[in-house]
Design goal:
Elements lengths: L1 H22 L5 E3 L7 E2 L4 E3 L5 E3 L7 E7 L9 H17 L6 E7 L7 H10 L7 E4 L3 H10 L4 E3 L5 E3 L2 E5 L4 E7 L5 H11 L10
Parallel strand pairs: 5-6, 6-7
Antiparallel strand pairs: 1-11, 2-11, 3-4, 5-10, 8-9, 10-11
Helix pairs in contact: 2-5
Length: 208
């Protein structure tokens, strides 16, 4: 009962947060300055499309772009658009020499269907290069925890679709949330420039 109340409270807080964003006329992207106190990104361990364990903290020293989706999404401007943007970002980043300094993570909130085999087919469908792009799934309990920690609200519909919020996070090389985007209010070019701007001059290009 306590867990149910906690989950409900998280959803209400997040929905109020979204209402506040749009009522203030914001475009849906928030840059967090160090003076405001950067928030440490919640660490998690999930499984990728190759059934390999992936932990967020293993990417220390790299920029991480974190998003959420599910493969059966039937709304072209929701998950499919997010995946296309991630693909464009990967192309832009890799062509700019960021392939060893940038990691893309897409976490499904439909883990019972989106098992590794399904995610692998989905990745291939979008011609994703999985050297620095992971499609992640896990147990229902773990996925629920990750979604709660990152403010992702999702609810099953009678149609079989899932109604959900959309947030894309930029996590810096030290594991702090540098910026986040609500909805589709971001472009791959903008995010690539943000990553380049955040690069430290003493970082080696060859770092793995």
């Amino acid at each position: 009962m306590r867990d149910h109340k906690s989950n409900t409270r998280r959803k209400v807080v997040f929905l109020l947060f979204l209402i506040l964003l749009y009522s203030q006329g914001l475009k849906g992207n928030i840059n967090i300055r160090k003076s405001e106190g950067l928030k440490k990104a919640f660490d998690f361990e999930l499984v990728n499309q190759n059934s390999q364990s992936v932990r967020l903290n293993q990417f220390q020293g790299k920029h991480v772009v974190l998003g959420f989706f599910y493969t059966r999404c039937g709304m072209p401007k929701m998950c499919p658009l997010t995946t296309k943007k991630f693909r464009q970002l990967q192309e832009l980043g890799n062509s700019s020499g960021l392939e060893d300094r940038m990691v893309l993570l897409l976490v499904t909130f439909d883990p019972e269907f989106d098992v590794p085999g399904i995610l692998k087919k989905y990745a291939n469908m979008y011609n994703a290069k999985t050297d620095n792009w992971h499609f992640l799934t896990g147990t229902v309990v773990r996925i629920t925890e990750v979604c709660q920690e990152y403010g992702i609200v999702h609810e099953d519909q009678e149609s079989g679709q899932i109604r959900h919020s959309m947030i894309t996070y930029l996590i810096d090389t030290e594991g702090y949330i540098k910026k986040f985007y609500v909805g589709q209010n971001w472009t791959p070019e903008e995010l690539k420039k943000q990553i380049i701007a955040n690069q430290k001059p003493n970082k080696s290009k060859g770092r793995k």
